Amino acid sequence: MTSEARWGSMQEAAELARVSTRTIRRRIADGVLPARRFGPRLIRVDLNQLDEMGRPLPGRRVS
């Protein structure tokens, strides 16, 4: 089941993810973060996909 996209500005996405807008732009360019253009200059980011930006770190297994 997929959730409906929740579109927000790059600034909102950066604040939520605690990264710079430059990082948001890079992730959009990489194809990691879905974004849409809603006019000649207006770009919106799917805020529900912010968790996909990060990648898991290898961890130690505790026995």
Topology, element by element:
Blueprint: E1 7-8, H1 10-17, H2 21-30, E2 35-37, E3 43-46
Antiparallel strand pairs: 1-3, 2-3
List its traits:
63 residues; alpha+beta; 3-stranded antiparallel beta sheet; 2 helices; 3 strands; elongated; Excisionase family DNA-binding protein; DNA-bd_dom_put_sf; HTH_17; DNA binding
Strand content: 5-15%
Structural class: alpha+beta
Counting structural domains, the number is: 1
Sheet with most strands: strand arrangement: 1-3-2
Question: On the 0-100 scale, what is the average pLDDT?
Answer: 88
Keywords: DNA-binding
Domain Helix-turn-helix: 10-52
Protein name: Excisionase family DNA-binding protein
Organism: Agromyces kandeliae
How would you summarize this macromolecular structure in one to three sentences?
The protein has helices at 10-17, 21-30, and strands at residues 7-8, 35-37, 43-46.
Explain what the structure shows.
Keywords: DNA-binding. Pfam families: HTH_17 (PF12728). InterPro entries: DNA-bd_dom_put_sf (IPR009061), HTH_17 (IPR041657), SinI_DNA-bd (IPR010093). Residues 10-52 form the Helix-turn-helix domain. GO terms for molecular function: DNA binding. With 63 residues, the protein is of the alpha+beta class. It has helices spanning 10-17, 21-30, and strands at residues 7-8, 35-37, 43-46. Strands 1-3-2 form a 3-stranded antiparallel β-sheet. The radius of gyration is 14 Å and the shape is elongated. Helix 1 crosses helix 2 (21-30). The model has no long low-confidence stretch (mean pLDDT 88). It has one domain (7-53). Helix content is 29%, strand content 14%. The termini are far apart.
